[in-house]
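Morning - flavin mononucleotide inputs below, output right after.
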Amino acid sequence: MSTLFSELRIRGTLLRNRLVMSPMCMYSSEDGFVSDWHLVHYPTRAVGGVGLIILEATAVEERGRISPLDLGIYRDEHVEGLKRVVQLCKEFGAKVGIQLAHAGRKAEDYPPWEREKVKVRGSREAIAPSPIPFGENWLTPREMTKEDIEDVKSSYRKAVRRAVEVGFDLVEIHSAHGYLIHEFLSPVANRREDEYGGSFENRVRFLLEVVRIARKELPDSVPLSVRISAVDYVEGGWILEESVELAKLLKEEGVDLIDCSSGRIAQEESFTEYPGHQVPFAERISREAGIGTIAVGMIRTYEQAEEIVSNGRADLVAIGRKFLRDPYLPLRWAKQAGVKMEVPRQYIRAW
Ligand SMILES: Cc1cc2nc3c(=O)[nH]c(=O)nc-3n(C[C@H](O)[C@H](O)[C@H](O)COP(=O)(O)O)c2cc1C
């Protein structure tokens, strides 16, 4: 009996298994539009048997892009291409989510492979809770006014409406990795003295407001996930106890899943990556906040993934880089587990 290969229903979304393709930027868009790359890349993983695909960080605003090549959902015209990706993935049995993102002070004006060439990284358009650059060699972002905060919230509202129009099975708010919402959460990046800074209640305000907007715009049947950096790994940064308290508040707002990543708020953070290094975060948040979780980070083997879900340490397991190497990972792991999985008829002779 495999838990990993058992179904899971979250609100109206029925997943065929507990494997998630973790959101991963493909830097393959022009002006935020879906390209041929996306039409090949995502449906291939659906053919490979994954339960849920979460599309890469997708910008809710042009100035909120991690790079100019990010996928976007900040124009009505973006809906059509996204619909095509979602339809294709669904045709091959996967459910599809979208990760809504705003890069804040980590927005950059060039693709990642040109980073080495620029003397000072960042974007001239970048906004953030406080005018503190990400690092020494980064541009200083503009401190957001109350009007900016309202504008960004309105961009999230429009983005969620478009996501509903596309027909996504889940929406994830990107509140991790040092991007805008994480910048509000963490004292490392947030030095505001108004109601959005200082105390825990003030630092979580912006995320809670975004989540409230998202939940209001989403049909009851569509699950809402929030990816957080459960810890900052820097002195004076966000800590795990705050993640647990935040998860309790998010649960009250109708969030279904906490996708538990970590770090990336500061250049000087120190941590080591090792197999399953973030799983304890998911486990503690599940247990203490009583909310569904996604575990992610160097989950590399079937046994490791099975252990996590079977022992109830997380509800879902997200895989990142391994999915870039092997789109057919779920089919392979199912075979290893002795679980019969539906193989596309075109491929049956190979399995
Ligand atoms: C190429 C690449 C792009 C990524 N882009 C995103 C992203 O858009 N949003 C996000 O939350 N995490 C992003 N990540 C992090 C992954 O989702 C994942 O959390 C991380 O790679 C750890 O999982 P893994 O060890 O299975 O790769 C990215 C990772 C890679 C390798």
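Note: DSSP finds eleven helices and 13 strands in the chain.

O.
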